[in-house]
Amino acid sequence: MPTPPAERPPFRVPVGTAANPVLEQDVLARLMSLGEPEEFGVGDTLFRAGDEDLDFFVMESGRVDIVREATVDSRERVVAEWQAGEFLGELSMLTGQASLLTARIVEPSRVRRISNAAFKQLMANDGELSEILLAAFRARRRLLMAAADRTTQIFGTEGSAAALALRRYAARMELPHRWTDVSTEAGRAALEASEHAGLDLPLVVSRGAVIAAATPLALAEAVGLAYRYRDGDEFDLVVVGAGPAGLAAGIYGASEGLRTLVLDALAPGGQAAASSRIENYLGFPSGVSGAEITELGLVQALKFGVRLSAPAEVTALSPREGGHELTLAEGDGIRARAIVVATGARYRRLPLERWADFEGGSIFFATTELEARTVARRPAVVVGGANSAGQAALYLAELGSEVAVVVRGPDIAAKMSSYLVDRVRAHERITVHASSDVTALHGGDQLEAVTLTSSATGESEDVAAAALFCFVGAEPRASWLSGAAVDGSGFLLTDVDLPADGPVGADIGRGPLPFETSLAGVFAAGDVRHGSMKRIAAAVGEGASAVASVHRALAAQ
Question: Which of 24, 399, 435, 478 has a CA 20 to 30 Å removed from the CA of 267?
Answer without folding.
Answer: 399
